[in-house]
Amino acid sequence: MVSNARFPNGDDDEIPRELAELGKRIEGLSDPVRGDLLQAHQSVVDSVRRRRRILSLVQEALSQLRLDIKYLMFDLEVTRQEREQLKQKLEDRQI
Predict the structure, then answer these.
(1) Domain tally for the chain?
(2) 3-33 burial, b for 16+ CB within 10 Å, e for fewer?
């Protein structure tokens, strides 16, 4: 049956298990009610998927930002060390 493909057993981590179960229950309703509810359900499913994609992108961007900050902090520390070494050399020459 086509409804099985649309509403998986809950193994699909794209949508919550409860939402998949609700879809299966809506499929079992009578025709006049089912059409409207299926449309609303599909809208919610689409929204959940879109939010999960956005969350995934934000998490990935945050991970990249953390890595970039670590590299920048390393570069800053090395630059400070080099500056101190050069200052020391200049002071040694002037004495």
Answers:
(1) 1
(2) eeeebeeeeeeebeeebbebbeebbeeeeee
